[in-house]
Amino acid sequence: MSDPASKYFDPSITDRERAIFEAAIALAMIYHKFTGIPISSDKRLISSLEETIRLSSATQPFKESTDVKIKTGILKKKKNPYDYTELSGRNIDVKVVARYGGAEATARLRFIREISYPLMYIEKVKSRHNVKG
Questions:
Q1: What is the CA 92 to chain-centroid distance, rounded?
Q2: Could you say which DSSP state residue 130 is in?
Q3: Edge-to-edge strands of the sheet including 63-70?
Q4: How far is residue 16's CA from residue 128's CA, in Å, rounded to a whole number?
Q5: What Rg, from alpha-carbon coordinates, does the chain have?
Q6: Whole-angstrom Cα distance, residue 28 to residue 96?
Q7: Contact 63, 26 (CB under 8 A)
Q8: Are 101 and 132 spatial neighbours (Cβ–Cβ below 8 Å)?
Q9: pLDDT digit of tens for each residue in the chain (133 aa)?
Q10: What is the domain partition of the chain in residue ranges?
């Protein structure tokens, strides 16, 4: 697929770098748009929200796939009308795969206990070549 925005990127940017950029943009969008949304342990709500996040990410350019898991183990069962919490970096696990030219980048967003932080990182990059093609 041709990229009408490619002329705005430095010509020395490789397909590999662009795939990483596109995957990172998706993670940042997901984290900053969806954290804070009210959630409960209701399985229908969780499933629907996972699908909404996945479909929302898919609208962005060069996204191959997005997997979203909302961890419900830390969510409490509703005991009164005010029992809900918010989606946070502690209870979301996202994997985004972006493909640009001859490169594919897999990026993750998940809570890492040992550093107590919702880390966004590049999990894997596959390239057929490192130049624009």
A1: 10
A2: S
A3: 63-70, 92-100, 103-112, 117-127
A4: 9
A5: 17
A6: 11
A7: yes
A8: yes
A9: 689 999 999 999 999 999 999 999 999 999 999 999 998 888 999 999 999 999 999 999 999 999 999 988 766 666 777 777 889 999 999 999 999 999 999 999 999 999 999 999 999 999 876 445 4
A10: 13-127
Query: What is the Cα–Cα distance from 42 to 84, expressed in whole angstroms?
Result: 10
Residue 104: strand, helix, or coil: strand
* Beta-sheet pairing, 38-39 with 117-127: unpaired
Its pTM stands at 0.87
Q: What count of other Cβ atoms lies within 10 Å of the Cβ of residue 40?
A: 15
Amino acid at residue number 20? I
Interacting residues of 38 by C-beta distance below 8 A, sequence separation 6+: 84, 85, 86
Kindly report the CATH class assigned to 13-127. alpha beta
